Amino acid sequence: MAASKDEAPIRIRKYANRRLYNTASSSYVTLADLARLVREGVEFTVEDAKSGEDLTRATLTQIIVDEEQNGANLLPVSLLRQIISMYRDNTGWMLPTYLERSMEWFAANQDKMRREVERAYGPGLSFGSMDDIGKRNLALFEQTMALWNPFGAAKPDAKEEPPAAGGELQAMRDEIARMQERLDALARKRDG
Predict the structure, then answer these.
(1) Core-most of 115, 128, 142, 158, by most CB within 10 Å?
(2) Residue 20: phi, psi to the nearest 5?
């Protein structure tokens, strides 16, 4: 049972025995069931059955932990360390907005990026094989956070990029740069 955008979110009650109860379907659910609801775009809240305390954030975090433990490995260790360090940092208040906006942009442009990569390199090239893009994005994130906290943040060691493995790698980088320019132009068109 899905809650539409106009309806109130589904209420999930969490009991002391850690069982989760979906009040909309009158059935017990698992974290895997809740993960499926998230993927389907179904809004829900999780509350403590006794106190009514909102447990949504903690439950969603537990879903992420379970996914990571099951081998998803979506979050790099360095990113997890940075997020943890932001909890006691005086600029940590900016992180939620930054991450939310970044994920909104990524979700909005994910299909466009996939189509451009397939157009440029043919079908079958996975985003996993483009690990260097993720590393560069993480480095950009680290630089951005260092700008906001120049005195408290440890400066990451400058690492040299490994030498190019031939013209093919450079051609891929050039194509990615062209794709980024196109995405930037689309974003400016949309915002302008």
Answers:
(1) 142
(2) -110, 135
